[in-house]
Write a structure and sequence with these properties.
Blueprint (H helix, E strand, L loop, with lengths): L2 H21 L4 H4 L9 H22 L11 H15 L8 H5 L7 H21 L10 E3 L3 E3 L1 H22 L1
Protein backbone atom coordinates (compact mmCIF):
# COMPACT_ATOMS: atom_id res chain seq x y z
CA UNK A 1 0.00 0.00 0.00
CA UNK A 2 1.20 3.49 -0.78
CA UNK A 3 2.76 5.02 2.39
CA UNK A 4 0.51 8.11 2.25
CA UNK A 5 -2.59 5.93 2.03
CA UNK A 6 -1.28 3.65 4.74
CA UNK A 7 -0.78 6.57 7.15
CA UNK A 8 -4.24 7.94 6.43
CA UNK A 9 -5.79 4.50 6.82
CA UNK A 10 -4.03 3.80 10.14
CA UNK A 11 -5.10 7.19 11.47
CA UNK A 12 -8.67 6.50 10.37
CA UNK A 13 -8.62 3.09 12.03
CA UNK A 14 -7.31 4.58 15.29
CA UNK A 15 -10.12 7.14 15.18
CA UNK A 16 -12.75 4.44 14.63
CA UNK A 17 -11.32 2.28 17.40
CA UNK A 18 -11.25 5.17 19.88
CA UNK A 19 -14.84 6.15 19.09
CA UNK A 20 -16.14 2.61 19.53
CA UNK A 21 -14.11 2.14 22.72
CA UNK A 22 -15.96 5.06 24.30
CA UNK A 23 -19.34 3.58 23.31
CA UNK A 24 -18.85 -0.02 24.48
CA UNK A 25 -19.50 0.89 28.10
CA UNK A 26 -22.68 2.83 27.32
CA UNK A 27 -26.01 1.09 27.85
CA UNK A 28 -27.94 -0.16 24.84
CA UNK A 29 -30.85 2.03 25.92
CA UNK A 30 -28.74 5.18 25.81
CA UNK A 31 -27.14 4.18 22.49
CA UNK A 32 -30.60 3.83 20.95
CA UNK A 33 -32.26 6.90 22.47
CA UNK A 34 -33.36 9.54 20.00
CA UNK A 35 -33.67 13.11 21.23
CA UNK A 36 -35.84 15.73 19.52
CA UNK A 37 -36.62 13.42 16.58
CA UNK A 38 -32.90 13.22 15.78
CA UNK A 39 -30.66 10.21 15.36
CA UNK A 40 -29.57 7.95 18.18
CA UNK A 41 -25.86 7.24 18.69
CA UNK A 42 -26.23 3.86 16.99
CA UNK A 43 -27.96 5.50 14.04
CA UNK A 44 -25.05 7.93 13.73
CA UNK A 45 -22.57 5.04 13.74
CA UNK A 46 -24.69 3.19 11.15
CA UNK A 47 -24.74 6.37 9.03
CA UNK A 48 -20.94 6.67 9.13
CA UNK A 49 -20.61 3.02 8.09
CA UNK A 50 -23.13 3.37 5.24
CA UNK A 51 -21.35 6.43 3.85
CA UNK A 52 -18.03 4.57 3.84
CA UNK A 53 -19.46 1.38 2.33
CA UNK A 54 -21.16 3.24 -0.49
CA UNK A 55 -17.97 5.18 -1.25
CA UNK A 56 -15.91 2.00 -1.39
CA UNK A 57 -18.48 0.33 -3.66
CA UNK A 58 -18.37 3.33 -6.00
CA UNK A 59 -14.57 3.30 -6.15
CA UNK A 60 -14.48 -0.45 -6.77
CA UNK A 61 -16.31 0.29 -10.02
CA UNK A 62 -14.22 3.34 -10.88
CA UNK A 63 -10.90 1.59 -10.21
CA UNK A 64 -11.48 -0.63 -13.23
CA UNK A 65 -10.84 2.38 -15.47
CA UNK A 66 -8.54 4.31 -13.13
CA UNK A 67 -5.94 4.91 -15.83
CA UNK A 68 -8.51 6.72 -17.98
CA UNK A 69 -9.28 9.29 -15.27
CA UNK A 70 -7.34 12.51 -14.76
CA UNK A 71 -5.50 13.60 -11.66
CA UNK A 72 -6.80 16.06 -9.10
CA UNK A 73 -5.29 19.53 -8.94
CA UNK A 74 -5.69 22.93 -7.32
CA UNK A 75 -9.48 23.05 -7.81
CA UNK A 76 -9.95 19.74 -5.98
CA UNK A 77 -7.61 20.87 -3.20
CA UNK A 78 -9.77 23.98 -2.75
CA UNK A 79 -12.91 21.82 -2.75
CA UNK A 80 -11.31 19.68 -0.08
CA UNK A 81 -10.55 22.71 2.09
CA UNK A 82 -14.19 23.78 1.80
CA UNK A 83 -15.36 20.23 2.57
CA UNK A 84 -13.15 20.01 5.66
CA UNK A 85 -14.39 23.41 6.82
CA UNK A 86 -18.01 22.30 6.36
CA UNK A 87 -17.37 19.29 8.57
CA UNK A 88 -15.72 21.35 11.32
CA UNK A 89 -18.40 24.02 11.53
CA UNK A 90 -21.54 23.31 13.57
CA UNK A 91 -23.67 23.08 10.45
CA UNK A 92 -26.34 20.47 9.82
CA UNK A 93 -26.65 18.72 6.50
CA UNK A 94 -29.37 16.44 5.29
CA UNK A 95 -27.88 13.01 4.66
CA UNK A 96 -28.03 11.96 1.01
CA UNK A 97 -31.04 9.77 0.28
CA UNK A 98 -28.89 6.88 -0.94
CA UNK A 99 -26.96 6.88 2.35
CA UNK A 100 -30.18 6.95 4.39
CA UNK A 101 -31.63 4.11 2.33
CA UNK A 102 -28.50 1.99 2.89
CA UNK A 103 -28.08 2.71 6.61
CA UNK A 104 -28.32 -0.31 8.86
CA UNK A 105 -31.15 -0.44 11.38
CA UNK A 106 -29.08 -2.43 13.85
CA UNK A 107 -29.63 -1.40 17.43
CA UNK A 108 -26.58 -3.29 18.69
CA UNK A 109 -23.23 -1.53 18.96
CA UNK A 110 -21.35 -4.83 18.72
CA UNK A 111 -23.08 -5.73 15.43
CA UNK A 112 -22.31 -2.25 14.13
CA UNK A 113 -18.68 -2.66 15.15
CA UNK A 114 -18.44 -5.91 13.17
CA UNK A 115 -20.08 -4.26 10.16
CA UNK A 116 -17.56 -1.41 10.35
CA UNK A 117 -14.62 -3.83 10.64
CA UNK A 118 -15.76 -5.61 7.48
CA UNK A 119 -16.23 -2.29 5.67
CA UNK A 120 -12.73 -1.20 6.68
CA UNK A 121 -11.25 -4.52 5.51
CA UNK A 122 -12.84 -3.90 2.12
CA UNK A 123 -11.43 -0.37 2.14
CA UNK A 124 -7.96 -1.68 2.97
CA UNK A 125 -8.15 -4.19 0.13
CA UNK A 126 -9.12 -1.40 -2.24
CA UNK A 127 -6.26 0.81 -1.09
CA UNK A 128 -3.80 -2.02 -1.62
CA UNK A 129 -4.83 -2.27 -5.29
CA UNK A 130 -3.84 1.31 -6.12
CA UNK A 131 -0.35 2.01 -7.40
CA UNK A 132 1.55 5.13 -6.44
CA UNK A 133 0.72 6.85 -9.73
CA UNK A 134 -3.02 6.29 -9.20
CA UNK A 135 -3.55 7.86 -5.78
CA UNK A 136 -4.23 11.31 -7.23
CA UNK A 137 -6.79 10.14 -9.77
CA UNK A 138 -10.34 11.52 -9.61
CA UNK A 139 -12.04 8.27 -8.59
CA UNK A 140 -13.98 9.36 -5.52
CA UNK A 141 -17.23 11.26 -5.93
CA UNK A 142 -18.44 13.22 -2.92
CA UNK A 143 -22.11 14.16 -3.05
CA UNK A 144 -21.39 17.88 -2.65
CA UNK A 145 -17.70 18.38 -3.49
CA UNK A 146 -17.70 16.28 -6.64
CA UNK A 147 -14.74 14.32 -8.00
CA UNK A 148 -11.80 13.93 -5.65
CA UNK A 149 -8.98 11.45 -5.15
CA UNK A 150 -8.62 8.49 -2.78
CA UNK A 151 -6.57 10.52 -0.30
CA UNK A 152 -9.35 13.09 -0.16
CA UNK A 153 -11.83 10.29 0.51
CA UNK A 154 -9.85 9.06 3.51
CA UNK A 155 -9.56 12.59 4.84
CA UNK A 156 -13.30 13.08 4.38
CA UNK A 157 -14.03 9.85 6.28
CA UNK A 158 -12.02 11.22 9.19
CA UNK A 159 -13.68 14.63 8.99
CA UNK A 160 -17.09 12.97 8.80
CA UNK A 161 -16.44 11.24 12.12
CA UNK A 162 -15.21 14.53 13.62
CA UNK A 163 -18.37 16.23 12.32
CA UNK A 164 -20.61 13.76 14.17
CA UNK A 165 -18.63 13.64 17.43
CA UNK A 166 -20.32 16.70 19.01
CA UNK A 167 -23.68 15.12 18.22
CA UNK A 168 -22.58 11.88 19.91
CA UNK A 169 -21.22 13.79 22.92
CA UNK A 170 -24.54 15.61 23.34
CA UNK A 171 -26.39 12.31 23.31
CA UNK A 172 -24.02 10.83 25.87
Amino acid sequence: MNPKLQNLFHSLEAQRSELLKTLKTVSAEKLNTQVDNGWSINQIIAHLIAAEKLSVAYIQKKIQAVDEVGDTGLIEELKMVALKLSQRLPLRFKAPRVVVENTSTSADIFALEQEWIIARQQLKGLLEKLSDDQINRKIYKHVRAGKLNIQHMLIFFSEHIIHHQPQIKRLL
